[in-house]
Amino acid sequence: MFSRLFKSADTKMAEAELKSERGGPHAFAYGIIADDIRYRIRHNNGAEVKARRKEGLTYNSIIKLTAKTILDQELMQGRHYVYRGVLSMTGQPLYSLYASIVTEIEVIPGWSEELGRKELDSMREEIKASG
Hints:
Elements (H helix, E strand, L loop, with lengths): L1 H4 L3 H13 L5 H28 L4 H19 L3 E3 L2 E2 L3 H12 L10 H17 L2
């Protein structure tokens, strides 16, 4: 019960990073998925954040990887489409955030530009086929 009242230091730092990202160039997209990110970093008393910190990830990387996981699902569900293959006004900023995350090499350990391009191409194909 008390774990819900008192956040760990890692959870607080991750939430502070989320807050700073919400003020950045992808503020609108982060605003759409912020509740989901917050839920995931708080879940299980911040166990995922702690585990990723032990792997050596920064709080910024943790937030972006969590956002990428959520965006993978959001962009493939079809809720952010006008019609097949065309993203809506909420889908476009979400895709833009997704593209910036997968092309940012330092966010994901073991990631390369080539993997980022393949991931982006794969998402574009999913968008064309979905909606």
